Amino acid sequence: MPPTVWITVPTYNEAQNLEGLVRSVVKQLEETVPGRGHLVVVDDASPDGTGEIAERLAAELPQVEVLHRTGKEGLGQAYLAGFRYAHSRGADLTIVMDADLSHDPRHIPALIEAAEHSDLVLGSRYVEGGEIVDWPPLRRFLSRGGSTYARMILGLEIRDLTTGFRCIRREVLETVEPSTLRAQGYVFNIELTYRAILAGFRVAEVPITFRDRKAGQSKISLDIAFEALLLVPRLRRTHRRDKPAVRDEAQAAEERTPA
After folding, report:
1. At what angle do helices 187-198 and 137-154 cross, to 10 degrees?
2. Which of 24, 81, 155, 258 is the most buried (most CB within 10 A)?
3. Contact, 239 vs 195, CB < 8 A?
4. Longest dimension (CA), the chain
5. What's the CATH fold of domain 5-256?
6. How far apart are CA 34 and CA 1, in angstroms?
7. Domain-by-domain residue ranges, the chain?
8. pTM summary value
């Protein structure tokens, strides 16, 4: 039987992007896991009407639900709310993705397929086949530099530690307990991956094409970059370093091939 898949989409002022994303995601879910795919929009009381658009879509599309929060509490807290919501509704796999159309829903089937033999699947911009489209050079440098910095500090082989497009098996969320993660913002993704590896879970990266948003305003700021610089070394000091259990898609395919 196909897994029950819940996709969580944190939103804040994404009125220009949300409808196109939701309709595309629902289409992919129905083609990949018919009858077992769901999407929850986690809206932080967006003043631009994002929550109202989400409600209209939920009234039309049975796969869509909406979780309204009382205010903007940060990306990490939005992730946690989405995880709890999906978990309480029986999700076998929880997929997190951005609302600004940077994460292409056509990659959803590849994430789900990779989760058949991996516990945490990362949509990676920096493995072979991955790419970034329309980002200016400075943004590219900061993104790749952030992943490289975290990889070196934490001693990992993961190429794209900061990606927000990921598929997580239920067992990972039950073991890692995301509510205990110390980081907020985009470092939340780094810590979740690091904790999963320390717990012995299998992590894979699948290539994605990441496109810069066409509408709305990016939530990235210098404060977020400084947070990463400060918090990543703290993760290494705080968590005991065990031997990682990391494999990429090529390794996983080789393991499934009979001798």
Report:
1. 30
2. 81
3. yes
4. 58
5. Spore Coat Polysaccharide Biosynthesis Protein SpsA; Chain A (3.90.550)
6. 11
7. 5-256
8. 0.87
